[in-house]
């Protein structure tokens, strides 16, 4: 077991806002590169409405291609029961159910209130036996429409879901990138203390305000050991300069390697994959390590 | 007293690598903007060889202009006795003495061994009475030529200097940006425990690998409350893509504000100064907050 696990979410959260359709073969090549570099947990795509998110229209093919990779553990994001059934029918055995603490955000994202999303999830439970679950708690810290989210509200939603599926992994998602290290440390500690039966915790951050790695460290300090990250820091919106993506996987991998913590990732193998992902037309790559290592003589790049 | 103090080092560390000479009036306008926004501690420039660092050739005028600003506390970097005397003669009352733990780096930077730098500092002491001192311990973590620096070596150098001037503020400098949060936390804690008579500690980081804010948080966790930062994240070398500068002052100010910690900085007043600094010809601006706030509607930018 590595000391820390990075979940590669670039193929979902990173590709999703990119306008020009990324050919399925190119997506699979990047996924294959990530898995080969040790990123075996990979959010390969989302089963969502193809009109809402055209970039995810090839979810079936992406799932099939990723399942065929030795060692790969693809998790597929689903927003509701209909799409969860599609994912399961396509062979998914690991789903990411996303639900927002903020009513405004859940309505914008899924067109349901959080309570309606919980009810839909509850009704679906019999069909989720044997399906591994990541429960992504969106706007756990901050909502783009209503600002800071009270920790009590996040704890209340986690509590409802944890009573149903304590065996799931719960992801505390900083949807806006506006969580700060103190907020992350406080909420992560409160969640772990409040729900000791929950099997696993994860932190999903964005680097919009540059706090991605600082927030990961805060979550790590509170005992979380699973972190989402996106290859090349993809995920920014090309139409909103500065609305950057997830923490760059290579930056997080580099940080943990410098700290002497194992991630199972071969950074040398990951670098060309990150360079390839950064060149995707229409993307807004982020992160620092790609450029920092490229600027160094080879013997000092390690 | 603010909870946390940011020292604005952009006019020295940020401007220094910029090729085209920044007009003295432009430098002073940015310094004035920083001071007006609450960055009263400001590393306004360096007294160094004008042939080695042409950008710092106007140090006397910059010092005089900064001393004239109400509330400003300019600190001037000096590498040796000769330049320290120049700075004092020009009216400096707050000096930054820089010395590297790494012999290779000190020789490259100052053309002396660390022991020779200590001897020169010791001989100068009678002339430094009444002069406030920041002792910048360069390569405290990592050297661009020889890699990771052993904590014992850093502690040994700090110990020699602290015996001479325990009233100084000691700056642990991550010269290469390759320190990681665990390394920062460990060394900062060891320094504070080993030298309890030292009056103050500071951390000076670079964001080259994206760890600037994570390392600041690690230093904060170890009890350090003074952090160097550069407006607009200046400091990168235009000829080495990815060799980025200090942590952006506006990013650090934004982070601490989100955490509810006071810095005395008015971020609204700082933003236009950061935008101005980012437009300096030949600079390599960094940081995230400038762009993130620019991308947001005004009512959500707070």
UniProtKB/TrEMBL annotation, chains A, B:
Protein keywords: Lyase, Metal-binding
InterPro entries: Aldolase_TIM (IPR013785), HMGL (IPR043594), PYR_CT (IPR000891)
Classification of source organism: Bacteria, Pseudomonadati, Pseudomonadota, Alphaproteobacteria, Acetobacterales
Protein name from the UniProt record: Hydroxymethylglutaryl-CoA lyase
Annotated GO biological process: ketone body biosynthetic process; L-leucine catabolic process
Organism: Teichococcus oryzae
Family designation: Belongs to the HMG-CoA lyase family.
Superkingdom as given in the UniProt entry: Bacteria
GO molecular function: hydroxymethylglutaryl-CoA lyase activity; metal ion binding
SUPFAM superfamilies, A to Z: Aldolase
